[in-house]
Amino acid sequence: MGRAKEKNATADYRSLSIVALHRAGMLRAGYDGSWEWKRRGEVVGAIDVESESQTRLRLRYRVTTKGEAELKDYPVPITWTPCHLGGNRPWFLCPCCGRRVAKLYLRRVFACRHCLHLNYASQQANKRDRAADLSSKLRRSLSCPGGYLSIPAELIPKPKGMHWRTFGQKVKQLKRVDARALVDAGALFASIERSLGQAYRAFASV
Ligand SMILES: [Zn+2]
After folding, report:
1. Contact 180, 131 (CB under 8 A)
2. What separation in Å is there between the alpha carbon of 111 and the centre of ligand 1?
3. How far is CA 60 from the centre of its chain?
């Protein structure tokens, strides 16, 4: 499941393959040119690529956010590992987390799929927030103030005047909503914090 979601997420982004750059001769020190993305033969995007050294590629491009263009200009480290058949093969070191990867994806900055996974994680967090809101609403309708962490659904007493059948349905629905709000919340926050910490350290050391 996580795999399919990751695929969907990364398919939406423009990617940069170190192998393709290498084949195009763009990793030779001193190279200065551009990489283009094409769809049906038409150029749909381009960035400037400058190879400052064997281990440092500089990327320059514009991103437009809310109608404002911004120039991005930063180096991406490259590392080389020996191949079985001789020679060396290049890898990006993700500018966001430092992982060794073959592909980077463009959001506003280029980052690896692990870093983009953050996006997926925050979408899940939004779903969780919505479940938490729905939980509070259902609880209010059962005359039980508080959120999904206050008391378990099965311990909520039936409000006076409510039919047992209605009460039973609401408790059943509440259990489902609470479960959705609780799913891996702890693990999720820990992973987001870890990723943000790594990203922050990577930028702070530039
Ligand atoms: Zn990364």
Report:
1. yes
2. 5
3. 22
pTM for this model (two decimals): 0.54
* Residue 160 CA, ligand 1 centroid: distance in Å: 55
- The two three-digit tokens of residue 200, written as one number: 């922050």
Separation of 145 CA from ligand 1 center, angstroms?
42
Q: How far is the CA of 192 from the centre of ligand 1 (A)?
A: 13
Q: Residue 13 C-alpha to ligand 1 middle, in angstroms?
A: 14
pLDDT in tens, the chain (206 residues): 344 443 333 445 688 999 999 999 999 999 999 999 888 888 888 999 999 999 999 999 988 777 888 899 999 999 999 988 888 999 999 988 899 999 998 878 898 888 876 556 666 777 778 888 888 899 999 998 877 777 888 889 999 999 999 999 999 999 998 888 876 455 555 555 565 655 555 555 44
- Whole-angstrom CA distances from 2 to 110, 117, 124, 136 are 21, 9, 12, 29
Amino acid at 69: A
The alpha carbon of 144 and the centre of ligand 1 are apart by a number of angstroms equal to 44
Query: What spacing in Å lies between the alpha carbon of 77 and ligand 1's midpoint?
Result: 12
